[in-house]
Specification:
This protein is of the alpha+beta class. The protein contains 4 helices and 9 strands, in the order αβββαβββββαβα. The longest helix is centred in the last third of the chain and has 17 residues. The protein is globular, with a radius of gyration of 18 Å.
């Protein structure tokens, strides 16, 4: 909500506190099926806790089941958002933003990392699960550093990260 309120791009989302809550009309097409896959995860966990191969749901029954399981396990609201397939990059930022300047002023960016999903094998999904971060990665980091990006892509990613950094203070 903070990012959206600061004009930063975010996926459509809904926060659930019960598995039987009404589903946002943004997610549904005219026949009560999803317009696109949805991603289900606990709202306030780190290290991708709760993110598994079942986190991407395509049907209402899959969504309800994931909500039930995660609400029971994590005892907190569950975030459901539009699943956007793509590359996973990480941006480290150090510094103190300067007021009233460019969004990147006062910030230093470390090289952008990209997760190499191919290194995890074909049996793993194309998004960063808790298992990848905590079980598979500690001894075998699978990143490209720096990420293979064009200058334009890297600049856009740094600007978006700087906007989030500023918005979240």
């Amino acid at each position: 909500r903070v990012l959206r309120d600061h004009g930063l791009p975010t996926a459509e989302f809904q926060l659930f506190t019960r598995a039987d809550e009404p589903i946002s009309p943004e997610f549904l097409d005219g026949s009560d099926t999803f317009r696109y896959p949805l991603f289900v995860k606990p709202n306030a966990e780190g290290t991708s806790m709760g993110v598994t191969e079942q986190s991407v749901v395509r049907t209402i029954s899959e969504l309800r089941e994931q909500l039930r399981l995660q609400l029971e396990r994590y005892q907190q609201p569950i975030l459901v958002e539009r699943f956007i397939q793509g590359r996973e990059v990480l941006v480290g930022i150090v510094g103190n933003p300067t007021p009233n300047g460019d969004v990147t002023d006062g910030l230093t960016f470390v090289p952008i990392l990209e997760v190499d999903f191919k290194a995890f094998g074909e049996d793993h999904v194309g998004y960063y699960t808790s298992e990848m971060k905590t079980v598979l990665s500690p001894d075998n980091y699978y990143y490209h550093c720096p990420a293979p990006l064009t200058d334009e892509q890297a600049s856009a990613i740094r600007r978006a990260a700087a906007g989030a950094f500023r918005a979240l203070d």
